[in-house]
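Project standup — Tuesday

K.O.: blocked on the structure for the chain from last sprint. Re-posting the sequence here as requested.
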Amino acid sequence: MTHDIPTVPQDDPAETIMAALAHGMTGHPEKAAALFEPFIKGGPTTTVGLCAALAEMTAGNARPTLPTGGAFGLLVLDARTGQLGDINVLPPGLRFAAQFSTAWANGERDTALALFNALIQQDDEQAAEAMATGIWCLFDMAVASLNEKTGRTA
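H.V.: unblocked you, prediction finished:
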C-alpha cells in the first residue's frame, strides 16, 4: 500500500519538512517549494528552523562516521586546476549552505545562526536570492544524504 505524499503544508512543521524531502527522494523536488513557503513567510525564526532541520538531516547520516573528537571540514576545489580553492569564490547561496551545514554538523549552532543572520541582514534582493538558493542547496544535500542512507538512487 502506498501513501500519497502531502503537497500542502501540514500542521506539524516536521511532517511538512519530511513530506518535502520525500518529494525530493522520489524525484519530484519541485513539489517541495510550496511546502517550504510557510517557513519563509513565517520570518527569520521559521526560516532558520528550516535550514537547521535540513542541515540536521544531512549531518545525522554522517556524524556516526566521525572518529572520536573529529569534526567536519569544508574544502573547496577549483574545478579547473583540481587545487584547493577559496570559499569566497562560491556564489553566496552555495557558500551559505556549505558553511551553515558544516557549522551545524559540528554542533556550532552560534556560528550557523551568525551565518544565517549575516545573510538576512543584507535585506535586499540579492540576499533573498542567496537565501533561496541556500535553502535549495541544503534541501539537495539532505535528499542526497537520505538517499544514501536508504540505498535509493534518486
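K.O.: great, moving the ticket to review. The helical segments are 13-25, 32-41, 44-62, 92-105, 109-120, 125-150. The mean pLDDT is 89.
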